[in-house]
Amino acid sequence: MSSAQAARQALADQLKELRGEVGLTAKALAAEAGWDRTKVSHIEHARRPPSAEDIRTWCRVCGADDQAEDLVASLRAAEGMWVEWRRMERGGLKRAQESVLPLFERTRMFRSYASWLLPGLLQTEGYTRAVLQAVRRRRGLVDDVEAAVAVRMERTRILRRPGRTFAFLVEESVLRAGVGGAEVMREQLAHLADMACLPSMSLGIVPMRPDREIRPVEDFWIFDGEQVSVELVSGYLTVTNPREIAMYGQAFGALAEEAVYGARARRLINDALDVLADEE
Questions:
Q1: Domain span at residue 111?
Q2: Of 17, 82, 204, 210, which is least surrounded by CB within 10 A?
Q3: What Gene Ontology molecular function terms does this protein carry (predicted)?
């Protein structure tokens, strides 16, 4: 069960327990609330998420108005674990970038795995602009790309702040993916090689080869071992379940063993630069 599913089920269990404490049947609660008789069952089995108003009605019928707002807060937390991109970005790309700043500010140990785009903290301004422009066009968003780029660039300053450590794993294919054109990629790859020299940072490149034991997975960030953020095609997933966090930690460790570092990593970056030169 995922963190989001577990949170929804935990809320459903609390509501069922509340009904049981006052001796109401599901049928009686539905009748008192003016609902279809199947609604209570669907909510208690987490097949249908309740609305905030449903929770307040449930608590009123059970004589537990004092618990309503805490349960509504649990609902909001569960909803926040899975956010569709269109919902996260409906206020524009700038606001979406700003929404994750507090998480980056408070984290001290970062681990990031990238299988399709370089992590934002390692991106140049040109690379970020190309990525966000593509996102804006694909999702039909308002054009606040320049403001969003400025927020993203401001965030990269944490790489040089004391008391933080960063471990990045990047698939070699990401170095060769065309983002923004040859000039943007040349600048980006040179920047990546420079950033790898920061004392607080470890950069591993996972080489392309036909005998890989660990296959690429979705891009993810691990923040202090307390939260994992996963970027999927349809949305943004926040994982807080300790068992799931451990699974991502194990995946990161396995991928780290496949990666190369230092001079060997720089060699792969230079190989990607050579490919760009050959294509001119």
A1: 83-279
A2: 210
A3: DNA binding
Bridge-based pairing state of the strands 109-114 and 201-206: unpaired
Provide mean pLDDT across the span 249-259. 95
What angle do the packed helices 3-21 and 52-61 form, to 10 degrees? 20
Q: What is the pLDDT of residues 43-67, one digit of tens each?
A: 999 888 898 899 999 999 999 999 9
Same domain, 120 and 69: no
Asked if 192 contacts 159 with a C-beta cutoff of 8 angstroms, the reply is: no
User: In what helix (H) or strand (E) does residue 74 lie, and over which residues does it extend?
Assistant: helix 68-80
Tell me whether strands 109-114 and 219-223 are parallel, antiparallel or unpaired.
antiparallel
* Reported confidence tier of residue 81, pLDDT bands at 50, 70, 90: low
Place of tokens 């909001």: 76
Strand, helix or coil for residue 182: helix
Classify 142 as helix, strand or coil: coil
**CA-based angle 26:30:32, to the nearest 5?**
120
pLDDT at 40: 95
Q: How far is it, in rounded angstroms, from Cα 266 to Cα 191?
A: 11
CA dihedral sign of residues 216, 221, 227, 233: negative
Task: Say how far apart CA 40 and CA 50 lie, in whole Å.
Answer: 9
Residue 130 to residue 135: CA distance in whole angstroms:
9
At 277, the amino acid letter reads A
Residue 49: φ, ψ to 5°:
-70, 140
What is the helix (H) or strand (E) element at residue 170, kind and residue range? Answer: strand 165-171
* Whether residue 119 is found in the same domain as residue 205: yes
pLDDT in tens, 205-217: 999 988 887 787 8
